[in-house]
Amino acid sequence: MKKLTDEQIQAMLDSELKPSGEMLSASEKQQVESYQSLFQKLNKEPEQGLSFNFASKVSRQLQLKLKKRSDIRFNLLALLGLIAGLGIVYGILTIVDINSGNQFLQAMLKFKWLLMLGTLILLGTLMFDQRVVEKN
Q1: Can you tell me the distance from the alpha carbon of 1 to that of 20, in angstroms, rounded to the nearest whole number?
Q2: 82-95: pLDDT as tens digits
Q3: Residues 79, 82, 85, 86: what is their CA dihedral angle, to the nearest 10 degrees?
Q4: Per the confidence metrics, is the pTM higher than 0.70?
Q5: Which class for 13: exposed (0-12), middle (13-18), buried (19 or more C-beta within 10 A)?
Q6: CA–CA separation, 98 vs 92, rounded Å?
């Protein structure tokens, strides 16, 4: 006998035909038995189902993960933008007058802790704002 397709097995189970053991090969019998056990389990309802808002909870969690990734990217771009801006200013000053470029570099090195503190405050404010918006 040729191999049974899923549709043929389903049709046999729907009409509740019991093919004789002689008509089916061992693998076909196993397929029919698998289908029968599957549909018996599917006909039983779960004892405790999922909550009604399960899908919304899952989608909300996925959206939060995506938002966190984009927030991290934004914060890194802000940091890189600040560093690039200072570098561009130094480059322009060096092109215009090398002494003013050196003075700018010395001022940046002299006030490096103030620059780092300002950068940390800026990034901290961004992160705080993102978390507040996330909670609302």
Answers
A1: 12
A2: 899 999 999 999 99
A3: -110
A4: no
A5: middle
A6: 9
Neighbour-count burial of 35, counting CB atoms closer than 10 A to its CB (0-12 exposed, 13-18 middle, 19+ buried): middle
Q: Measure the CA–CA gap between 89 and 92, rounded to whole angstroms.
A: 5
Q: 3-class DSSP state for residue 65?
A: helix
Burial 101-127 (b: 16+ CB within 10 A, else e): beebeeeeeeeeeeeeeeeeeeeeeee
Q: Tens of pLDDT along 39-79?
A: 777 766 666 766 778 788 888 888 888 888 888 888 889 88
Q: SS3 for 99?
A: helix
Which two three-digit tokens encode residue 66? 């995506």
Copy the structure tokens of residue 41. 């389990």
* Whether 119 contacts 79, CB under 8 Å: yes
